[in-house]
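User:
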Amino acid sequence: MTRYVGIDLAKRSMQVCAVQEESAAIERRGLKTDETGRQKLCSFLRKEDVVGMEVCGYANTLARILLKQVGCEVHLFNPGGLVMVWKSRKKTDKEDALKIAKYLRDTPAEEWVEVPLLSEEEEGFRSDITMKEFLKKERSMAINRLHALYGNEGIIDVTRADLADDEGRKARHGELSERSQVYAQILEEQLVLLDRQLAAAEETVAEKTRKHELTPYVMSIPGVGIATAAVLVAYLGDGKRFSKASEVANYAGFAPRVDCSGDTNHYGSIAQHNFCHPIRAVVLEGVWSINRCSYGGPLAAKFQSLAGRMNKQKSAVAVARKLVTLAWLLMKRREYYNGIDPNMLGKKLRYYKVRGAGWESVA
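Assistant: Predicted structure:
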């Protein structure tokens, strides 16, 4: 007999709940998310079971394990579409697992708010971008520490830009005291290593972006380069994980806080938590690039219009929201930016050595 199994995942534990169609019996398991817990879960499940869980990073890994070791059906759901979970007044992991199980059992499959399972290649692409962003932050912190050594000794004509490359660092190294030179040497050696690692990470991400079939569509947006395209392609993909633009904006960190009281909704400032940090950071950089672009199109015009009424940072966030939702639509529909000059797009894609998707036909 088919069982419908809901799994609610936490960092170190998971709650498992199984229900059946013609029985009120409920089977529960509380397991760890480690190797032992996964093996116990595989022993509990049967091939004819239907398993569902809310999508998250670990959910993709666990789903692939269950598909390989158990062979049961596994479905990942958009948390924003599981209304009975996030609107429930009884919010515990056990209850959430039960609600997911009942959702599988009682809701027709065509109405499920399902999202595709990430492949290992897609997950690897995201990991490459995360590592690149990590290395960039580490490099910035090391340069800041090195710059502070000069400031502490009153050498105020040294800028961070002077310390950005190995040649510039060596040129100013002798101005420090002997004690500070010891610390500076440690930081300079660390920066040499970080520079090499960051260059390799950037090339890995760029190469995967060049080969991706969706890259030409998102790069048809004026001002979007290979770095912005990489993040949008990796995290938004073909757009099937999102049902509407507001979900994309919320995922990217460009949605306002909402305080609900009865039938009244109060909208506040942009939420500063629970969003995809790589998208938010890189897309905001892309907005400033669009503003400087010789052909920024409607997005640049929108930025200039907003900047006349509010500060530029808020204007950038507003345009970034439009940019990320526009990129989502273009990749979902596999369309090019409206009004893009084919010659300009061809020149841009050749410059970045982008391959595939037949962009030559965008007339």
